[in-house]
Design the sequence.
């Protein structure tokens, strides 16, 4: 049995946009921003910039 764990993300450089399933607004991440994403929360990186 595989146990899925929470995901911790920190953006060190550049910018990125993250979209969670069921939401319309993209969350913007700048250097130093972080997120703790629950294991069952579907999401994707919509875009990333250097």
Sequence:
């Amino acid at each position: 049995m595989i146990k899925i764990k929470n995901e911790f993300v920190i953006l060190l450089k550049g910018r990125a946009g993250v979209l969670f399933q069921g939401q319309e607004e993209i969350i913007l991440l700048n250097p130093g921003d972080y997120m703790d994403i629950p294991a069952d929360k579907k999401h994707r990186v919509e875009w990333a910039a250097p």
